Amino acid sequence: MIGRVKKWLGIEGVKLELVLPETLEGTDRVLQGRVRLQSLNPQVVRRIRIILIERYSRGRGKEKLVDEYELGQVQLDHRLEVLPGEVRELPFELPFELVRSGIDDFGKRNLLFSGLAKAAKAINAVGSEFRVEAEAEVEGVALNPFDKKAIAIKG
What Pfam families does the record tag this protein with (predicted)? Predict the structure, then answer.
């Protein structure tokens, strides 16, 4: 009985881990990484969904605004059996497109405008944080394993 509940909740089941580079050039437009799967019990993974998200914040205190943008998504439809003690890795490529703000477009015009754009961003406390989230759909489990990792994107 306890074994069934543990399996249904995903306890001692598939553990998912993202293996990513620490930084990425924004001009690359493709994130390459791996999904590492391991389990204490035999389990079957139906698919894995991977998403790159930008958290864009601006303002300070009560005036602070935060938006999140999905920059890219990929779904790996590999039916994969993960056996106890076995480590499986799936490589993936996640194409993405950066979202540019009006200040970014203004700063790209020339070198002088670039400095003004940086100053405007500093004054308004504008910043972006990027993260990659992955979730695996596992047969017979109510709570799917997931992982999320921060990544730095330059440019």
Answer: Spo0M
Q: Which of 135, 136, 134 is nearest to 44 (CA)?
A: 136
What is the Cα–Cα distance from 39 to 87, expressed in whole angstroms?
8
Q: Which amino acid is at 19?
A: V
Q: How far apart are CA 32 and CA 91, in angstroms?
A: 7
**Sign, Cα dihedral of 145, 95, 77, 32:** negative
Residue 37 has φ and ψ, to the nearest 5°, of: -120, 140
Residue 101 CA to its chain's centroid (Å) = 21
- H-run or E-run covering 7: helix 2-9
Q: How far apart are CA 114 and CA 58, in angstroms?
A: 18
85-117 pLDDT, tens digit per residue, is 899 999 999 999 887 766 666 667 777 777 777
CATH 2.60.40.640 fits 2-97+129-154, yes or no: yes
What is the C-alpha to C-alpha distance for residues 43 and 141, in angstroms, rounded to an integer? 9
For the chain, the structural domain boundaries read: 2-97+129-154
